Amino acid sequence: MRLLARYNRVNIITTIVVLILSGLSYYFAIRYILIGQLDDDLKVEEQEVIDYVNKNKTLPNPSSYKDQQVAYQDAVGAPVARKFSSSKAFSKEENEEIISRQIVFPLTIEGKNYTVMISKSEEATEDLIQLILLLTLGLVILLLLVLFIFNRFLLNKLWRPFNTTLKELKDFNLSNNATLKLEQTSINEFSDLNEAVSIMSNRVNQDYHTLKMFTENASHEMQTPLAIINSRLDVLIQDEAVTESQMKQLQGIYDALNRLSNLNSSLLLLAKIENNQFKERTHIQLDELVKKKLEMFEELTESKNLHIHINAESIAIEFDPQLTDILVSNLLNNAIRYTGPEGEINISAKGTVLTISNTSAIPALDKEKLFQRFYRHGATAQDGNGLGLSIVKQICDVAGFTLQYEFANGQHEFSVHF
Amino acid sequence: MKILIIEDEKALSESIATYLKSEDYLCETAPDFKTAISKTETFDYDCILLDITLPDGNGLEILNNLKANNKMDGVLIISAKNALDDRVEGLKSGADDYLAKPFHLSELSARISAIIRRKNFEGSNIVKFNDITIDTQAKLVSINNKPFDLTKKEYELLLYFVTNKRRVISKNAIAEHLWGDDMSGNYDFIYTHIKNLRKKLAATIGVDYIRSVYGMGYKFTDA
Fold this sequence. Notes:
The structure holds two protein chains of two kinds. Chain A is an alpha+beta fold. Chain A is 55% helix and 20% strand. Chain A folds into three domains: 3-154, no CATH class; 175-277; 282-417, Histidine kinase-like ATPase, C-terminal domain (Heat Shock Protein 90). Chain A contains nine helices and twelve strands. In chain A, strand 1 (63-64) and strand 2 (68-74) form a beta hairpin. Chain B is 43% helix and 25% strand. Chain B has eight helices and 14 strands. The chains are: A alpha+beta, B alpha/beta. Chains A and B meet through helix 4, helix 5, helix 7 and helix 8 of A and helix 1, helix 7 and helix 8 of B.
């Protein structure tokens, strides 16, 4: 639920309840006051009757006007107690029920008891109350409407810096190294938030940058010791005194060194791709590149007796030549490496899609993990350094290409949408 | 042939010097920027191995200094950075070649001899080993003045052997030289090519110059 909706709901319910309560108390208060006034009028009438009786020793004539009646009754038994009351009576003239206020009080004239009834119509009072209530209701509705509209526009405007910040945070991407564009605001809460957010994003950016630089620097720093080991080995094997069994040990060192060098240069490559260090853009004829690469791998494919079917239309892209080379190389190398002898590799280039599929004894690969660094399928644990596909993925990511993997009919299929 | 090795890692420059000395190269070393500048200003070298990242200066400035003094020394950059920028920058500043660390000494030696060929024997580009003559310009091999037919890979292999003659070259180095990183670690094809090259040489000269060293590598030698 949006904050505004939640706020509006609470606000409106509270307003309505409070207004109803105050309306009710208003009603009763006004009614109490007006009835009190009627009663005062009745008291004045009472006094007039009493004064008249005291003066004339006889009852005044009963009277009946539209809004005031005076009537007398002989009191039977004990005299009635003086009291005010309201009552309803049907009026023929008005053709409706009339509420009236009356006073009943005993009167004794020369030893004879009477009951005097003076009543006054409450109609005027009721009309006044109704009018006041209507006015109040109208004001309540108007107030609610104004509040609703006002809240909607004002709050939307007030929350705009927050929404901008939120949008910036959602679009925040570490790898493109962008800084947050936050709106200037005079509202303390939001400027505090913006400040906290920008401090945090700067720190994250910085940490990420440091981490990336660390990977790159670490790989660089490793190149020199690797070079020393390599050169020392190259010198050592010149020694005529080295025996055959020692040479075997040395070969083991060479092989491990080779793996380490490959691993290191792959990590370095990944770091460089991440750091966007390949910015060259040239026109590359992809189908020709694939064919050229296949020629380079000819000895490999021939030794495994692989059947290669290539169906390439002309595809041209604008991209870094080195990265394109690596992309195509890695995909082809992968396909060749994991295809068994006499296996089949299908390469198709159509529109903007390059697809390379190969048969393999390896079952479908885990799509989630496939492009993760150092992920290797159990059956291929010893092969490669587990970075080939990560590099392909990384290249596609920086270039905005889409890389897909499918497994169908025993074929592993990788496709790149340029 | 005089070579100057500008490299701050003593362990590396030592190995390089040891390896190159057996090829009749006279090696000097400069472990820092200052020594390098004073040596390059005072003497002429056939080839300078230049590590760009020196503790007290940028190697590229040595290049610029050479150019400013109109020195014709060949320069091979060896760098741990392997960054495209360095490669481009270095070659633009007048370096002849670029080799990223780590490298095989046999590869280094082959690159150096290519640079020296280009610098010293302008136009001639001839490499000889006994009765074998390799024209690196035309990429042709002749034995006793008769053309000797080789495939592209066999030619590269032979040239690599001759530029590293009488020294053991590891299979790793050969694989990397012939196929680059793409197929490193795969030695099966080396056997095939060496077998074929051996057969052809045996059929023409009757001498087997290629000696296998305990399955570790090969040595091209007449001794």
